[in-house]
Specification:
With 174 residues, the protein is an alpha+beta fold. The chain is 28% helix and 29% strand. The longest helix is centred in the first third of the chain and has 19 residues. The radius of gyration is 18 Å and the shape is globular.
């Protein structure tokens, strides 16, 4: 009896861990910072900073956690799409550049006592080559990906949540 109980607890704990993981789509213009830049970064890890949108700031500050998985999406380029898979290496923290007058992301209204902007660190797990293109994703816009934010007209957010079902569907496209 005790063994079965322990196994059941372990299985339940594993299920809870899987449920706690969030999935994200991190969008960047490859001319500014692309998957190749992330691959060249020290330990293939860098801060996802420079976000100046309050909704995304709230995701970074409150919801994105270490261990979460994400798609690295190239936008505003010849072939937009998913070019890599990243993991969150560090949960939300106050973005140092927002407080540094010499930094390109400095915000004079940001205050160390009441910070305005946050960042997370992302680590490149693997490239997706060939990429999963926006065109491919759009083929499923009326089916499995009908609620995916990246496929909605006018979506300009640089970080958006992805459901577990969307994540599984997209990773199976390869």
């Amino acid at each position: 009896g005790a063994r079965r109980h322990r196994a059941g607890t372990a299985a339940s704990a594993f299920g809870a861990v899987e449920q706690l993981m969030n999935y994200w789509l991190f969008k960047s213009e490859p001319g500014t910072f692309g998957v190749d830049d992330l691959a060249r970064a020290r330990n293939a890890t860098t801060a996802w900073d420079g976000v100046r949108n309050y909704q995304v700031r709230n995701f970074l500050r409150d919801t994105v956690r270490k261990g979460d998985q994400g798609f690295f999406y190239h936008s505003s380029c010849d072939v937009p799409g998913i070019y890599g898979i990243v993991s969150v290496a560090r949960a939300g923290y106050v973005e140092p550049g927002a407080l540094d007058p010499k930094h390109r992301y400095f915000d004079p209204k940001s205050d160390p006592q009441s910070p305005r902007w946050y960042a997370v660190d992302v680590h490149l797990e693997r490239r997706i080559d060939p990429p999963i293109t926006l065109e491919t994703l759009r083929k499923h816009a009326h089916g499995a990906l009908s609620d995916m934010l990246i496929l909605r007209r006018g979506n300009r957010l640089s970080v958006t949540p992805v459901t577990r079902d969307e994540w599984r569907f997209i990773t199976a496209l390869k």
